[in-house]
Amino acid sequence: MSSDTAATPRLVTAAACQLGPIHLADTREDVLKRMISLLDQAAEQGVKLAVFPELAFTTFFPRYLLEGQDLDQYFDIEDPRKGGIEQSPNIKPLFDHARSLDIDVYVGYAERSIQSDGSHVDYNSSVYYSAKANKIVGKYRKVHLPGSVEPKTAAGAFQQLEKRYFRPGDLGFPAFRAPGLVDGALKKGDMENSTTGKGDPIIGMLICNDRRWPEAWRVYGLQGMEIMCCGYNTTAFQTTSSGHAVDMSPEAAEELVMLHHKLSCQGNSYMNACFSINVAKTGAEDGNPLVGGTMIVHPLGHIIKEAVTKEDELVVATIDLADCDRPKSTVFAFEKHRRTEHYHSIVERTGVVEPELLASD
Ligand code: CDV
Predict the structure, then answer these.
(1) 208 in ligand 1 pocket by Cβ < 6 Å?
(2) Most buried by CB count within 10 Å: which residue of 53, 143, 244, 287?
(3) Confidence band (pLDDT; 50, 70, 90) for 18?
């Protein structure tokens, strides 16, 4: 890629569709109405890509110990014999509406994946629906599941049971191109010296806790990702290993959570020379506070636009994917500067192995 000539603009108007709290008593129909209302507002502002949060259609249920029907109601069935998740009655109306408005959608949901023998495996998933293709063109299953399998037993402990309810994602980090988002995208077979940074936008997807893991971003970065979409439900406080809130004022705790959220998204956007659209479910769900911080981040690391409420709110920006070109061709030109011969431990080791202790004097 050359940075000598000014790149042709590749403009996309994108919306981070923040959702306020969804309480246990809220119905799926009510939530769908709120999401469709955000899509309508987005269409009025010329939006072509709308990004919704993790587990967008319900309350953040992994904070509860649930079984049987109480748990089943939160899942959407993905049965390949019945046409996939886009046919789920809970989700189809969102995609149908998006298609009528010519808007692409990223959305998170609890996936119950039906296997060929009739059993099921559950994932915390997201899909990318393309209005132009009128189908799902990207799918992701959350890799970094936080929390525990067994509930914390200490009195007053907060639960985070994602490891109980979901299996770790098995699809890796597959970037893909979204058709119809930018004008004049080069297609396969077009004769050009270089097609880098000139095709249809390259999209990556992460879910919540994944955004804190640079390995995940880098695997996408190595596929030339230009827009990262990431929905999340992040508690507005941090917990100790026993599940109790860290001992600090609620204000200080939330400030720290927000700092870590922003460091993760801004740092990794910068280090992979990509835009990121980071979308919260926020506010207090039945008294359980979730942090906000919905924001669209530039490849140079700064926040282009961010939410100002903890309610349903649209954060809209027109981004120019050509802004990825300079960092991708200079400081983060991976092909020129990476030294993979020194990176073995990244894939060979999971936990920390400290250097040997020093001998006593
Ligand atoms: N839903 C999440 O993945 N939440 C985690 C919390 C538990 C740390 C997060 O990274 O925001």
Answers:
(1) yes
(2) 53
(3) very high
Give the active site residue among 139, 142, 198, 310: 142
Tell me, in angstroms, the distance from the centre of ligand 1 to residue 134's CA: 31
- Residue 17 and residue 311 in contact, taking contact as beta carbons nearer than 8 Å: no
CB atoms < 10 A from the CB of 123, how many? 26
Which residues, other chains included, contact 273 with Cβ-Cβ below 8 Å and sequence gap of 6+?
Answer: 221, 299, 324, 327, 328, 332
142 in active site: yes
Cα separation, 288 vs 290, whole angstroms? 7
8-186+193-348: CATH class? alpha beta
CA 228/CA 356 separation, integer angstroms:
39
Residue 48 CA to residue 46 CA, distance in Å, equals 7
Q: What is the pLDDT of residues 157-198, one digit of tens each?
A: 999 999 999 999 999 999 999 999 999 999 999 977 889 999
The catalytic residue among 17, 54, 198, 226 is 54
Distances (CA, A) of 203 to 67, 82, 179, 276: 36, 27, 11, 10
Q: Is 54 considered catalytic here?
A: yes
Could you state, in order of their start, the residue ranges of all structural domains in the chain?
8-186+193-348
Q: CB of 256 within 8 A of CB of 231?
A: no
Ligand 1 centroid, distance to 212 Cα (angstroms): 9
pTM, two decimal places: 0.97
- Residue whose CA lies nearest to ligand 1 atom number 10: 209
pLDDT tens, position by position, 51-67:
999 999 999 999 999 99
CA of 208 to the centre of ligand 1 (A): 6
